[in-house]
Each structure stands twice: as C-alpha cells, then as structure tokens.
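Two proteins were folded this term; both appear here.
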Amino acid sequence: MHFADVTGDGKADIITQEADGGVSMGVNVGNGFDNYHRITGTGWGDYLNTKNIHFVG
C-alpha cells in the first residue's frame, strides 16, 4: 500500500498492489477514499514502462 497524490488535487490517494500483481487506486475525497478501481491488469508492466503513473508530492 502506498499513498501519493495521483490526481493532482493536493490529497494523498491510495495505491495498492493486488495479490495477482495488479494495481488499484482510490481517490482521496477528504474524509476517506472513493472510486476505488483497478488501474492495471496483472503486474505493473505497461504502466511503468510507458510512465503512465506519476507520483506527485
């Protein structure tokens, strides 16, 4: 589990690596996390290779 401002709104969003290697994230809405969804298939693969995930802050 990691926290980083993925959405660029100044709040730390939650990023988790699932048991199968996929990556999911939840958007910080100020009083919890919402819109928790999977952002990759299995493994980091293409997202790291194409730099589609950017950690801010």
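Next, the second protein.
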Amino acid sequence: MRCLTLARALTERGVECAFVESRAAAPILRRFGWPAQTLLAIADAARLADLVSYAGSFAGRFEPDVIVIDHYDAGSVEEAGLRERGRRIVVIDDLADRAHDCDLLVDPGYGRKADAYRGLVPGHARVLAGPAYALVRPEFAAARSRAMSRRAKHARVARGLVALGLTDVGGITARVAQALAPVLAEARLDVVVGAGAQSAPTLAELARADRRLRIWTDTAEMASLMADADVAIGAGGSSLWERAVVGLPAATVILAENQREMTARMAAAGLTLAIDAGGPDFDAQLTRAWRLLAGDPVARWRLAEGSSELCDGHGAVRVAEAILTLHV
C-alpha cells in the first residue's frame, strides 16, 4: 500500500510507474492501484532471489530510470544486481539492520534519524528519516481538519474501528471483533477486511447477529472511516501513520516482529497503546485497551493530539520530489 501511494504521487508528476510483485500481492494492486498505474508484472516466485531475477528481466524491457525496492529481506546484494544501465536505486526500509546499495533511502519510523544508516548506505546516498516521510494517501491529509475538530469536542465514543490489514494474519480480525462485542455498549464497530480474508465468513455471521457491527470489504474509504471513528484497534506498519494523520486514538496490535520495536517506542511516548497479538492474554489486553479508550476522554485527546503532531500526511509528496531530483 505504501508503494501504491508513492506511485500515485509520482504519476501525478508525470512519471510512468510499473510494479513487479509476487502473485499474492496482485489482488491488492489491482483493487487499489491508481488509474495511471497501468503496468503490473506478476512474478510466479516465492523466493526473493527469483523475484529479483524476474524484476531484472522486466526492467530490461521497461527501461526504468529508477527502481524502488520495498522488501524486508532485500539488501545490498539484491539492489546492486538491479543497478544496470545507470539506474538509480531507492529503498524503503524501517529496520536499519542491513546494508543497502542505494541512492535514496526512506525510513519513516518514529524517532528514526539518518545517522541510523551510517555505514549501511553508500556515502553519496540521501536518507529521508522520520514520520514526515511516511507514505500516506492524500485523502487522509484532506480529512485531517474535520477529524481533529470532532475529536476536540470530547464527545462520547459512538464509533470504533477495527482495521488489521486486508491479509488478516491468522484470522486476527474476527478474533478481535468477537472479543470486543461484549464491551461495546452502544458503540458501533466498523470492521475492515479483505475479500479473501480468513475472518470473512465469521465476521459475516457476527454482523448478522449483532447490528452494532458493520463489515467493510476491500474498502477504499479508509480515510473517511478513520476520520469518523472515535477510537480504533489497528495494525502496525503504514496504517499507523494513516491513523496519526487524522489523530485517531488507537491501540496498535503487533502482528509481526518487524513492528515490535517502533510500536513499543510509540507506546512508551504515549502516542498509542500497544497490544501483542502473540501474547497469552491477548483478549484481556484488548478489552482493557478498549475500556481505557472508550472511558477516558482525557486519555483519548492526549493520544489524538500527540499522534497527529507526528505526521501531516504529505510524506509521499516529499519522497516523490526527492526521487525526481535523482534523475536531474
């Protein structure tokens, strides 16, 4: 999703973009791709080496000036292999745990400084670090003002949002909805999920039995849903910055190990609540978080105000402009 956001910012500036992806990502790219993003090459490859090989072959036909690489296992070896014909390499990373062969690196992580990549990128490489470079779709920035005006009224919690990723790791979305149902009181709960998600059948059944639940499948209305929600249970990763832009008070569920460090840092700074999906008391953590968010308007406002100051939603524009300067 963050690459789609960047591609949108680039196409709006006259750049032709193409994607090379694994087969698993194809439905998301087709569903959410910006209309100008017409080229999509699907690699029938599960291993990184095969995906890179396919990308190199495709690049030989597409002849890009810049290649953007976003893969948690890719490093300097894979990046160097795509450098043919004077291409510039842009890397998106948020771990700072491996060397890169790139001209530009983007890491929007909370508290991240460019110095974290000293010795990990070439001397000439530019590093864009911190939430100002988070790749967030423009509709979130457009919804920011009205969202913060609503939150400043400190009204009771009338709408909650559960959005834990369209891929629905391990059926986590249904588990969360089931755990929250007994503590919702009169609040409505909007639940976002992908069409092929493991949770989809269970969620449909829950919604039939409980009119407080509304299921949104493959929705493109996330900015409106987040702006109109009073509290949220969300995933780490890029959606964390979407919530920040509209100041949505939230508990962030750690779904992958690469989300743990930053989520913990943000929780320690009072910018989100943190819940470990792998914890033995996950359901108890979840209900405690909901009760805190729903029952304490002062805590909600602190979370809203603090998180909104992190990210203004214009990071994609900044990154796109930086990429354009690479080919001057």
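The CA atoms of residues 101 and 122 lie 6 Å apart. The two ends are 27 Å apart (CA to CA). These notes refer to the second protein only.
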